[in-house]
Design goal:
By secondary structure, the protein is α+β, with helices and mostly antiparallel strands. It is built from 21 helices and ten strands. The protein folds into three domains: 2-95 and 163-202, no CATH class; 97-162 and 203-246, Phosphorylase Kinase, domain 1 (2-Layer Sandwich); 249-438, no CATH class.
Length: 523
């Protein structure tokens, strides 16, 4: 009861901030039930005047509510199935920029993480150069065999885990209440969405996991000519501290600086698109926050990505799905594109492949009547997911994250080369994957892998038979003798039953007293 009251107070405060910033101003009251319409009128009484757009008002409200709400906004930007495409697009503009916490607290965190003075960890340690909702970054130096080396040190915000836990408990409470009252909330799976966000943030708060993501991507991309990631300093990395190679490059968003340094902007645009597709298709592991602030160009002209807190993964089935639908649209093979959806199990088998192919053609044909620079792969995927909804395709969170990231990547590439031909740029990467995995070589490799899988299964058969025999014996004993409970289990059941009976008796006495009181009033 106390926790429910606490959550309600926190949520009321959040609603007050939303109302004050005018977040509810664009809602259509005719679509709301009567109590909500009354609440909307009250909210508009405290709304302060603002010339900002709806996206600006929403971003301002989330920023005022603190780090958890900023992260909530960023998370919901990846779930247009929950908040709608319009709101998701608005939330993409939300910048995760927070005031830095004091230098002394960052030093205390580092000394606690490594159990030694700061001077024994870093030769020098400067003020924060960037601050976000979960951590902030400092520039520092370390002593190596080659001399002093510049590093970037990411330090977790003190107390941030407790702050997020409290706010996320309130989110979960709101999601449960919404699902208990609304069938639409159940359809949108708000409880599952809140749980997914909790898991995502928990991973972000262990900086060792971000270091592991960096290490994995470094291995995946070690032979890529136009992309790399910073090296991790594992000796100076802990749960609350991450130390990386300092990237002394040019922000990809600084077009003027890139031109002044003589970089080929068209080549950089192609590299951004092709790198992302390689990571998604070849590796099944991609950077899911590739906005311009996280991308640099180093002295060798290679793209360097930073901030690996949000990563996306695609399994073999999802990668094949992505490659084949892109290839199907490139070659205008709509029938094959439709078949892939059925083979992946995304569209239920009771639907017609021909009808689905016709719906896909309605998306693909307009593309081939446009100039190359007008075609958006991200928009294509968005339209495709809208059409698949008509054919009962369930939401695929990993594909939504892919589509959201592709929107950002396309935006970055178009800012460098507005006339970029997305399909010509994507074709070699997609075609290479198709030939390697679905061509003759891929079929041979698949057959070898299938043989190995059969061998592994045959090796497990004796163990499976042994465990099956034990299970049959246990079922036979339970049938003949009944289920035998341990004394501790019996005692625990007895105590639980006693508590239940005691509270039942209390409830009955309360009801009896109320009845007596009512009879007395009638007299």
């Amino acid at each position: 009861m106390i926790s429910a009251l606490t959550h309600s107070v926190r949520l009321l405060r959040a609603n007050y901030v939303f109302a004050r910033e005018g977040v509810f101003s664009d809602l259509d009251p005719t679509l709301l039930p009567f109590p909500a319409r009354v609440g909307l009128r009250l909210a508009r009484l405290i709304e302060r005047p603002s010339k900002a757009s709806h996206a600006g008002r929403l971003a301002a409200a989330l920023t005022k509510l603190g780090p958890t709400y900023v992260k909530l906004g960023q998370f919901l930007a990846t779930r247009p199935d929950v908040v709608g495409a319009t709101v998701a697009h608005e939330l993409e503009s939300l910048q995760d920029r927070m005031p830095p916490f004091p230098q002394a607290e960052a030093i205390a965190t580092i000394e606690r993480a490594f159990d030694r003075p700061l001077k024994d960890v870093f030769t020098s340690f400067g003020p924060a150069v960037a601050a976000a909702s979960i951590a902030q970054v400092h520039r520092a130096q370390v002593q190596t065999d080659e001399g002093l080396k510049q590093v970037a040190v990411k330090v977790l915000r003190p107390g941030i885990e407790r702050r997020f836990r409290i706010d996320q408990d309130a989110f979960a409470f709101a999601a449960r209440k919404a699902e208990s009252f609304s069938a639409e909330a159940q359809r949108l799976r708000l409880v599952e969405t809140a749980a997914t966000m909790r898991r995502s943030v928990a991973l972000e708060m262990d900086l060792r996991l971000e270091a592991a993501a960096l290490s994995e991507m470094a291995e995946n991309t070690k032979d890529d000519p136009d992309f790399r990631v910073p090296a991790v300093d594992w000796d100076r990395t802990a749960k609350d501290v991450l130390t990386l190679e300092w990237i002394d490059g040019t922000h990809l968003s600084n077009r003027a600086a890139l031109e002044a340094k003589g970089y080929d902007l068209k080549q950089l645009a192609r590299a951004v698109i092709q790198s992302f597709l390689r990571h998604a298709l070849r590796d099944g592991f991609f950077h899911a926050d590739m906005h311009p602030g996280n991308l640099f160009v180093d002295r060798d002209g290679r793209i360097v990505a930073v901030d690996f807190g949000i990563m996306g993964r695609l399994g073999a089935k999802e990668r094949r799905f992505l490659a084949e639908i892109l290839y199907g649209f490139i070659t205008r093979n709509y029938r094959r594109t439709a078949e892939v959806h059925f083979e992946a199990g995304y569209v239920p088998a009771h639907h017609s492949v021909d009808d689905f192919a016709q719906a896909i053609r309605a998306i693909g044909e307009p593309i081939h009547k446009r100039s190359a620079d007008e075609i958006s792969m991200a928009k294509l995927l968005m339209l495709l997911f809208e059409v698949t909804g008509l054919f009962d395709m369930r939401t695929r969170p990993e594909l939504l994250l892919l589509q959201k990231t592709m929107v950002v990547v396309e935006g970055v590439a178009r800012s460098l080369d507005p006339k970029l031909d997305m399909w010509t740029t994507a074709d070699p990467v997609v075609r290479e994957w198709i030939e390697r995995h679905l061509g003759p070589v891929g079929r041979v490799a698949g057959a070898v892998e299938g043989t190995a899988e059969v061998g592994r299964f045959m090796g497990q058969v004796p163990g499976l038979l042994s465990r099956g025999a034990v299970l049959i014996e246990q079922l036979d004993a339970a049938t003949r003798n009944g289920i035998v409970l341990s004394p501790e289990t019996v005692a625990n059941i007895g105590r639980a039953e006693a508590r239940r009976n005691r509270w039942t008796a209390v409830a009955l006495w309360v009801i009896a007293a109320l009845l007596v009181y009512i009879v007395w009033l009638i007299k």
